[in-house]
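Work Package 3 committed the consortium to producing structural models of liganded targets before the mid-term review. Because experimental data for this complex are still outstanding, the team generated a predictive model from sequence and the ligand definition alone, so that downstream docking and mutagenesis planning could proceed in parallel. The input record is reproduced below exactly as it was submitted to the modelling pipeline, together with the SMILES string for S-adenosylmethionine.
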Amino acid sequence: MRVRNVKNKNEILRNSNYVINNPNDYIGKWQSVFNNSNPIYLEIGMGKGNFIIENAKTYPNINFIGLEKNGSVLTYAIKKLDGINLPNLKLICFDANNIDLLFFKEIDRLYLNFSDPWPKERHAKRRLTSPKFLDKYEKLFKVNIIIEMKTDNKNLFEYSLKTMSSHGFIIDDISLNLTEREDFPNIKTEYEEKFILKNNPIYFVRMLKRVNF
Ligand SMILES: C[S@@+](CC[C@H](N)C(=O)[O-])C[C@H]1O[C@@H](n2cnc3c(N)ncnc32)[C@H](O)[C@@H]1O
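The resulting structure, written out as tokens with the ligand in place, is given here.
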């Protein structure tokens, strides 16, 4: 996501009650951050935050954590939260390359929405559904691994179906155009809104894997 550099981004992040500035300190202890035992859903690459913020408003009995590596982008989400109190939402500025340093057996669901497609083969390892990332994700989850993915990029979608299937995931739900699904309680992301206006199909899949019996 291209945004201009926000010069005082570090100050904005430091002063927000939503941002956890020392996330490594909470590995294995995220439940204590929310002070309840509700499930924890994580979004990697949350961008400007519409999806995670609207989810937190809609589902107060679920805890939501949004992760975004670009501090300037994160300030847009913080601005949206001005004057809003959502005790079930926390935000982290962090690169998912080291996601296994943040969580251990405490996540219930992972959202990957319109992740960067990294189309060149030599960059395949950077895709958030590459085998390298799938290995890391295994350690984050309490019991079953549940990953929900939305993208308008057919190549990334097909690649992800293959890598996740090879990793032992099964498909729980799939759609080749989520926009046409009237039965699906979809909360849209900023990118999704743009792609829908362009009439791009929105690919969706929810994949499951049972671990940690
Ligand atoms: C294409 S944007 C999509 C943003 C948002 N999910 C949406 O649908 O509107 C991808 C976002 O993922 C973030 N991102 C990419 N790789 C990441 C990583 N390794 N760790 C954390 N965030 C990442 C980017 O900074 C960018 O904001």
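Reviewers should note the following from the model. The CA atoms of residues 27 and 103 lie 5 Å apart. These observations will guide the Year 2 experiments.
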